[in-house]
Amino acid sequence: MSSTRPAPLTHHPPRSLARLDAWQVCHSLLAWLVFLNIADLVTTRAVLNRGGSESNPLMQGVIDSTLQSSLVKFACIVVVVALALRTRFPQRVAWSLGAVNVWYALVVGWNLGVLVRS
What we know:
By secondary structure, this protein is mainly alpha-helical. It is built from 3 helices and no strands. The longest helix has 28 residues, at 22-49.
């Protein structure tokens, strides 16, 4: 009866955000930010067309104009992208962008829920 021992397990620590290419993560999150802003604009317009109201006090003055609200969103994205690409701390930016994307996903989800219920 021969005894075979299994090969020892090698411990591989999980890859943290710091070990991933933080710039690639930032670029992906920036792309999601653009998509989520467009989704927010489209779903907000749909809610408004069904009699809803804008809850964001920063957008209430421009939301009635598709052009103005699009320009405000575009300007904000340009500023965020410019700041994100100039940083020396891409890991911190990635975490911040992730949090902002979660917020926008919740807003879009809320708008979609309002649309389904109306």
